[in-house]
Amino acid sequence: MCGIIGIVSQGYVSSKEIIKALKRLEYRGYDSVGYALNDGTIEKDTGQIAVFLEKMEDKKFKTGIAHTRWATHGGVSKENAHPHPDCSGNLIIVHNGIIKNYLDIKDTLLKKGHVFKSETDSEIIAHYFEEKLKNKDMKQAIVDFMKETKGTFAVLMIKKGENEIYAFKRDSPLALGIGSKEFYLSSDIYGFSDKTSKAIFFDDDEFAIIGEEYKFYDKEGNPIEKEVKEFEWGFFEEEKEAYEHYMIKEIKEEGKTVRRIINSLNNEQHKKILELNEMITNAKKVCFIASGTSYFASLLGVYFLNRVNVESQAIIASEFKHFIKIDENTLIVAISQSGETMDVLKALKFAKKKKAKIASIVNVPYSSVQRISDLSLEILAGQEICVAATKTFINQISLLLYLANLNGLNVNLDTLHERIQETIENNEKKVEALAQTLYKKRDIYVLGRGFTYPIAREIALKLKEIPYIHAEGMMGGELKHGTLALIEEGTPVISLIAYSDDEMISNTKEVEARGARVVTISNDEKIDPDFYLRTSKDEKFAITATIIGQLLAYYIAREKELPIDKPRNLAKSVTVE
Ligand code: M6R
């Protein structure tokens, strides 16, 4: 994961500016932060970017690089924080990705007398170049690096005294933003979208040298022309406003964002959703791939399409190639908020090799997933800052419902935003009170059946991720096959009971009989649920029930005084395998 930023400017810039730009990438990792300038300055520390920004000295610079880390190789420490210099302090790098053969390279470098200060794989990059540059020029050294290293990388490198950044990438994302007097390098367009709307996206095994102008090269070092894209990213909602956390702000935006996606599918994205539908109709096999929350959205997609006799399947991206046979008649539909999830990208590259067609549903425009797709739709949820996916999940499901409607499902999506607002307004206080009774619990079980099964999984994921409660989201019918043994007096069980779902009522009784403390969420008033969510349509209940789960995860975590927007060990964009 990790976020990297580089700035090459014609005039002097304050060093605080590079850290402010980096802050926009903090969602990619927040274990440590650091920057380096071409006068040889390196400042780094563990902890939050905001604290670092407050304490840092204000220096003027023309060329600098910065890094926010999500630790992989080596613990969270100042030594392991980026940037990393070579032995002489002449070359300084930041890196996002994992160099898989770093131990072999390190071994060779150690034998040549290099001294390493960190436990990271990244540090070898600076030393590798220090060694190479003894008898090669920079271009040739980068070509060699691309040939000799295994793994993933987006690297920015500066040389003391030079006003240039050397940038190269494979699998990890990297974009060049083109300003009027500055160039910006960033893991994604968030890093510079407040400065420019023009960007060039690096493809794999390309590199660039950025100084007064920029030049791109292929992996052999041949110059290449790259297209400058004008991007529009009009939904910046990153200010927390009056809210205590982004998570609650983003949950409360759900009505608004659902209206936006439905409106767009009726208008500017209408042609695209029809195209997606046609691709589905023409394919012999349709498979959704996704990770985490987006996978649960995919499962719902399969359910909705199944309701209208369209067959599809959903596979977790990291397991994709083990569970499917694909060819040119297969359509892969990738669902990814960030569009940068490495597991999804790897699966897509695998599918592409097998000549499958690729469609995607993403939130971030120009993301890697979007760029690899034959067709891509955007869910228009706006930037989601909290690590937990909330509003983006709701918009993913809304888009999938729209798709099912095109095939004959009859869900009125024009009133969906009203149901969402009503759910939040009528239940927030009640959820908060419930959270106060649950926050000391170690385990929570969430039961669903049919379309509420993916929702049970999603609610359980939220409970793990934000309040750190061990939660299991499972099929009500599976309880009796083993898990029932874990239910004892007072075990919390959340039961999602759709209208007239008698089987789910029986499963709920089964846990109640064993002493479980059951919380029922239903759109069936006659069963007198703890949370009654008014809607005659099950598909809308899928959405409103999720929102109760999101609020519950939020309020339990708040009661426990946890870092809600940045839970431990996680990052928003998961760019490692
Ligand atoms: O960006 P993506 O939708 O591809 O991300 C997939 C998962 O990493 C993501 O949904 C993760 O599970 C969320 N943090 C859950 O809230």
What is the correct CATH architecture of the largest domain?
4-Layer Sandwich
**Number of strand segments:** 25
Structural class: alpha/beta
Task: Report the β-strand fraction as a percent range.
Answer: 15-25%
Number of helices: 16
List the ions, cofactors and other small molecules found in this model. 5-amino-5-deoxy-1-O-phosphono-D-mannitol
Here the CATH topology of the largest domain equals Glutamine Phosphoribosylpyrophosphate, subunit 1, domain 1
Shape: globular
Widest β-sheet, arrangement of strands: 3-2-4-1-10-9-11-15
Name of the CATH first level of the largest domain? Alpha Beta
- Classified in CATH, the superfamily of the largest domain is Aminohydrolase, N-terminal nucleophile (Ntn) domain
Distance between the termini: 10 Å
- How many domain units? 3
Q: What composes the largest sheet?
A: 8 strands, antiparallel
Radius of gyration: 25 Å
The overall pLDDT, averaged over residues, is 95
Could you explain how this protein is built, in words?
There is one protein chain. With 577 residues, the protein is an alpha/beta fold. The protein has three domains: 3-230, Aminohydrolase, N-terminal nucleophile (Ntn) domain (Glutamine Phosphoribosylpyrophosphate, subunit 1, domain 1, 4-Layer Sandwich); 240-410, Glucose-6-phosphate isomerase like protein, domain 1 (Rossmann fold, 3-Layer(aba) Sandwich), CATH 3.40.50; 423-566, 3-Layer(aba) Sandwich (Rossmann fold). The strands form four sheets. It has an eight-stranded antiparallel sheet with strand order 3-2-4-1-10-9-11-15, covered by helices on one side. Strands 5-6-7-8-12-13-14 form a seven-stranded antiparallel sheet. Helix 7 (254-266) runs antiparallel to helix 13 (416-438), helix 9 (292-307) packs parallel to helix 12 (391-406) and helix 13 runs parallel beside helix 16. Bound molecules: 5-amino-5-deoxy-1-O-phosphono-D-mannitol. 5-amino-5-deoxy-1-O-phosphono-D-mannitol binds next to helix 9 and helix 14.
